[in-house]
Specification:
16% of the residues lie in helices and 35% in strands. By secondary structure, it is of the alpha+beta class. Strand 8 and strand 9 form a beta hairpin.
Length: 155
Amino acid sequence: MLRFNHIVKTDAECFTTLTLTFDQRVKSRQRIALDNGRIAGLFLPRGTVLQHGQKIQAETGQLVEIMAAVEAVSSVYVSDALMIARSCYHLGNRHVPLQIAEGFIRYQHDHVLDDMIRGLGLEVTVEKEAFEPEAGAYGEHKPAAHEHPHSHQHD
């Protein structure tokens, strides 16, 4: 059985893909079925969260690209910054992973959370989409296209 044990940054071609839901992408040790049907094992450091587009490498050197599976999500399409902030505050207060993008926020579908968001006066759309939440303050940060690297100096 192939054993995938680390994430690599490479442009090398992968021999297949691995499509996982968010709940599967947070499990560091599990039996997996690659998209080509081959069974393999995932043995990553605890706390690893796989992200769409990352590549993992087997002990044999073979590469696989991670794909975020389409799953049931709740999306809140809103352009009002204050309403986005309020929604994120209330969802974050419940430790809910959030995907935050220009014009919408998204979380794994949960009717109780949907009702809470509706209670804030917002509309919730339940749909099937890939779920890619924020990595968190201590996770890997991917700068937005408009961001640029800079340093903070303290006098």
